[in-house]
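Q: A reviewer asked whether we had any structural model of the full assembly, not just the individual parts. We don't, so I'm hoping you can provide one. Inputs are below.
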Amino acid sequence: MAVTIHEVAKGADVSVSTVSRAFTMPDMVNAATRRKVLQVAEELGYQPNRAARGLVTGKTGNIGVVVPDVANPFFSAMLKGCTARAREVRHVVFLADAAEDPRVEAEVVGAMAKQVDGVVLCSPRMQPTQLERLVGSTPLVLVNRDEAGLPAVLMDSGDGARQALEHLAALGHRRIAHLAGPPASWAGEQRLQGLRAAAPACDVETVELGPFPPTFQGGVQAADLALARGVTAILAFNDLMAVGVLNRLAARGVAVPADISVVGYDDIEMSSMTTVPLTTVRMPMEAGGRAAVDLLLDGLDAGIEPEATHRWLPTQLIVRSTTAPPRQDSGSARVLAGR
Amino acid sequence: MAVTIHEVAKGADVSVSTVSRAFTMPDMVNAATRRKVLQVAEELGYQPNRAARGLVTGKTGNIGVVVPDVANPFFSAMLKGCTARAREVRHVVFLADAAEDPRVEAEVVGAMAKQVDGVVLCSPRMQPTQLERLVGSTPLVLVNRDEAGLPAVLMDSGDGARQALEHLAALGHRRIAHLAGPPASWAGEQRLQGLRAAAPACDVETVELGPFPPTFQGGVQAADLALARGVTAILAFNDLMAVGVLNRLAARGVAVPADISVVGYDDIEMSSMTTVPLTTVRMPMEAGGRAAVDLLLDGLDAGIEPEATHRWLPTQLIVRSTTAPPRQDSGSARVLAGR
DNA sequence: TTGAAAGCGCTAACAC
DNA sequence: GTGTTAGCGCTTTCAA
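A: Here is a predicted structure for the entire assembly that you could use as a starting point for your response.
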């Protein structure tokens, strides 16, 4: 079944160490010998057993990636970045889907620890103490979370929130709802802070709603609450929620953006796919995945445990037709009568 | 750094084999001893090195999953099923994203082969001959492809196409466009066949368009072609394309479903998120992922190479408001005048 | 430039 | 019920 290094050695009539060298340190072996070895290996379809190699070198060539939910477009985009970059640097990805469960997150890191050179934790939901317990089991890099002095790739969604707020304020909106996602979301917290910080200068009043599930349904649910609070604009936690909001507004006969403006956060083009093009804060998820892999590997090369290095990635507001100046006759009353 | 079995043995004052047994065959060791061992292991934070274990047992406890594109909702849903099921049976998932490149598919299987117990190939795009070359390197299970006598999980999208066609025919549609996706897609081929087979009995004429990229843009592009052919209904390759179609129709002032009916294929609720709820053929992607993992593992348990076992999963038409009877004044002319 | 041998962390006979 | 020992496939001293 599995063709081993011994068979290649026998076939090429050399010792196993020569075969090994032909692969790992090619110029330490005679050109002719090497050619022969490589050829025999090719014929036999030999592929070094990376697990065995890892056992002795201590380097597996694998990296672990843990996401809260692969089916969430944000995280599948991030995963895409991780796998793509990993491939470029000849590494393989171990994937774990934590199913939005903090305990699973901790558990899987333990399970992977020994078979990987390090783990990328994407938006981990777990408690700081749990996170700290993981430190030392294997090199860790965080994405969109800043904790325990760990190296991290951080997206500046606080700044994105500011951009969105200023955009809406410039249009004349004075009362804006913020729909929160999962409480454990670092990015969500950043957005809220960015919003609060920017609101006074923009002369905007923010209405903080939630938490809601970061889903289509969460958006539907949130839309009614936002409507009842008489806002003229809504900032949704992510594109899924934003689409839910859009749908609920449509169902209630509220026009977007005539009656209410909507802004979401997305990764790629999810939101360009809505029938009413959705204004969004662009989160560079794929780039984040790539950066995380780099950070992890750089840290490993550099020496021991990587220094706590933070890589900030900018976010960008993409304005589309879901935002417009508020009506002069002010949203609230009209909207509530709308149905 | 990494705590080994030896340290646990020393700490518990037993031999390594006792520690090993305490983990792998608990009832072959004295209850008191076991308790002590487990406790010491706990304290030291010992986790067996699965790679080393695999080296001797020949079983890694890992399974490989190869997808054409993680960022595609179809495949992230399938991946979700794989990881969920894998976890339930205490396995870890090795993920590879082939970036829609057949060569990469073959390559990654080779790279993973030695570290996994088997590989799930999701909708592989590679040639039959390439696929055959992979057989033997590691146990393989196919999803949505039937080739080389390999075990496979197959979704009956041919039947889904039939259901969609009959639905549209029942509404009175007589001229229906089929928008093809990637030529290498087995599922696409199935749908086309299902359509062709069902069309005569339904007294329907099918207009076969494509191939198009299975994306939003592909749908935009396809919509114009379909319109020009004067159909009253459109069957899109997947939900992304369907949404593209919807958008382009809206942009051209064509009403859905008044002027044209649209049907897509989707996995979960993507299509319930469109502003005009989209009628779709439901593909059980997540269930497919789970089934594939089961098939792989069952085959391994059963004995040698798994028999070529096929698992067919049904598809289901979900009717929503994007389909309606065609206008009496017949779509074609009206629509073309529409803009 | 090459080979022989030790050993990575673990399990699986085979003794005791 | 427990310990000793021989490897799993590979890399890496150390000698030749």
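A: Points you may want to mention in the reply: Residues 2, 4-6, 16-17, 20-21, 24, 48-57 of chain A lie near DNA strand D (CB under 10 Å from a C1'). The first strand of chain A starts at residue 62 and ends at 67.
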